[in-house]
Design the sequence.
């Protein structure tokens, strides 16, 4: 096996497609399903080649077909437990069922998990389906002409608010920060500020959820401490994520658990020891361990954009070729 890609979001799918199309025998593993967080995005409008936008699910399907076309072996669900780095030349990916896959290089693309608000009854409303972490066509169905809440200040929250409003919902967009444009693209902020069905609440915090079995309202706290109760039949939460990096034991990470690569590695990792006894500088996307690379949302300093993740995946394959040729 030449290359094992762990994680099938946009970065992992891109890595698998480029790896296989360039002659590497490639396996793609994912614990849950293809597409990652991007697959749950209702519409991606700033991805090159789709001027009218594309849903994350559709983009994922196209990428999967491409991967299969080039001979990628896809295994999902397939849970990865860790890495065996005892062989300097051939890292092994350890699976939770006890088996392992030896390969010449690993690309980690396991992304991150959604964060939740620490509010009473959150779990109950989540279980009842009133709290969602995506705004696909399926997620927003049934909220036409209903009041809903979107929490978050980045692009995914903005896309969700616009998609819900386009389907007839009245949207309260709750942003903790004081400025909407701090983490959101300008094309989204401009539309949100002028949309008649979206009410923007900056500097606000969600303090309470209420309802008998299903969500009926939320309470938000203004910057001056006053509280308002807003009608809400559904809450769409986009407040960030935590990296899925615990399986990468022994690989350098930042304080938040995101994986450090190339120029972000500690000073002591500026020269990477090789099995031949020589050394080299880490390649783009390479971690503190030779032949192990990290891409997409998992990587410290990533742009958290679909196009950026795809670029990471493609770029990491170039580095894989360089590593295999030089080590």
Sequence:
């Amino acid at each position: 096996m030449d290359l094992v890609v762990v994680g099938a979001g946009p970065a992992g799918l891109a890595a698998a497609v480029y790896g296989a199309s360039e002659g590497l025998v490639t396996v793609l593993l994912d614990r849950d399903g293809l597409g990652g967080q991007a697959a749950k995005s209702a519409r991606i409008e700033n991805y090159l080649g789709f001027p009218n936008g594309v849903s994350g699910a559709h983009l994922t399907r196209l990428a999967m077909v491409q991967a299969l076309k080039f001979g990628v072996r896809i295994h999902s669900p397939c849970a990865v437990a860790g890495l065996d780095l005892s062989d300097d030349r051939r890292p092994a990916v350890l699976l939770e069922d006890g088996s392992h896959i030896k390969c010449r290089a690993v690309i980690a693309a396991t992304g991150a998990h959604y964060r939740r608000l620490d509010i009473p009854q959150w779990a109950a409303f989540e279980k009842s389906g009133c709290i969602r972490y995506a705004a696909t066509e399926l997620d927003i169905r049934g909220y036409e002409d209903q009041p809903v809440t979107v929490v978050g200040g980045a692009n995914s929250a903005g896309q969700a608010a616009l998609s819900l409003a386009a389907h007839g919902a009245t949207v309260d967009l709750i942003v903790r920060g004081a400025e909407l444009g701090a983490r959101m693209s300008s094309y989204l902020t401009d539309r949100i500020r002028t949309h008649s069905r979206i009410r923007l609440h900056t500097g606000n915090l969600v303090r309470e959820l209420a309802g008998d079995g299903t969500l009926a309202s939320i309470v938000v706290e203004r910057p001056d401490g006053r509280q308002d109760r807003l009608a809400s039949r559904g809450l769409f939460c986009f407040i960030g994520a935590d990296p899925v990096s615990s399986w990468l034991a022994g690989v350098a990470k930042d304080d938040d658990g995101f994986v450090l690569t190339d120029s972000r590695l500690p000073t002591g990792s500026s020269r990477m020891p090789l099995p031949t006894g020589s050394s080299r500088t880490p390649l783009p996307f390479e971690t503190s361990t030779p032949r192990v690379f990290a891409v997409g949302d998992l990587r410290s300093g990533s742009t958290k954009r679909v196009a950026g993740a795809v670029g990471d995946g493609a770029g990491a394959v170039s580095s894989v070729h360089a590593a295999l040729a030089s080590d």
Summary: Residues 173 and 200 are 5 Å apart (CA to CA). The radius of gyration is 21 Å. The chain is about 25% helix and 25% strand.
